[in-house]
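[retry 2/3] ABC transporter permease: previous attempt timed out, resubmitting with same input.
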Amino acid sequence: MINLAQKDVKHTLGKFLVTAMGVGMLLGIVLIMIGVYRGMIVDAEVLLDDIDADLWVVQEDTLGPFAEASRIHEDFRDTLRVIDGIQNAEALTFQNIQLPKTPRPVRVVAVGFDPLGTVDPINPERIIQGRGLEKVHYEIVVTDTTGFKPGDTIPLLRHDYKVVGVTHGTVSSGGDPLVYISLKDAQELQFSYSNNRIRNDRVRGIKNSEARMVNTVVAKVKPGYDVNAVAKEIKRFKYKSVYTAAEQKWILTKNLVEKASKQIGMFTGILIIVSTIIIALIIYTMTLEKMKEIAIMKLIGIPNSMIIKMIAQETLLLGFLAFLFANLFSHLIYEKFPKRVVLEIPDAWMLFIVVIIASILASLIGIRKVVKADPSSAIGG
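[retry 2/3] ABC transporter permease: success.
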């Protein structure tokens, strides 16, 4: 039996392929946007996984340093260490800073921790050059996207910091590069004031009581102890908010990323609708261009079912080719984006199902036109 769809596509092959490429680019952006969301989830978990703490103790009635301001005294670390069930505890700070660099500064998130302590947020597997922090002053570990290398000097506030190590893949929950400095240096950067401010405060009799503050104290729980029970005990008697690793991950992936996911979802839906409309318009246009031929086919006795099959096959083929171009396009450009984009096979298959459904719906416009075609129009007119 003659395959009408094959012959028709062959007749307009160039136009058909260009259309598939155009729709494919739209669908490729859909895959990229889904990948951006996946990347946000991965970025949100990088630091949590590297620190690998069982408990996050933060300022009372706050969600912690990743969601809102949190300040607690550094010595609460010592209080936490003597609580039954706590194996070790360390204080951490998190702050946004600008690293001076030509032609423009680099925005990063600085993690402050005690290099001599029991918690090291630097995953050794991520170090690609140099080493981690060993001194309590004026050393810094940067991520490779900052452009610095071991041996470079970075001026911050009143001191110069020597780059001793470079990591790869270390980002904050917002996707900004991470750098690591000692807790003492971080406190100076975050809580110290300029000389003029200090002099003014002294005149007013104000002391800088924030110099020994941190943003959170993280802890590991001893084997055999229930993490939730220990957290509940700290909340009850120490008047602090305490989150388990699972709860902290929920705050990041659900509370902070949720709005972004809704926005990405809306754009994704709009692009899919636009792609469906474009496919429908192209098939409708192609159907109009061969109405004379369709009328002749109906006049010589070719059944509607065969002509409808041709339209449906063309639409599905267009959707399938667009899907292939979408994957090719997305994989060619995703690494060019400034933040992490994660492309996963299940997302591609889900898009494939959506494209097939959209193609079937789009074909209905052309099919409707075919069914209403008058065979007598092939004669005269």
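[retry 2/3] ABC transporter permease: The CA atoms of residues 44 and 173 lie 4 Å apart.
[retry 2/3] clearing retry counter.
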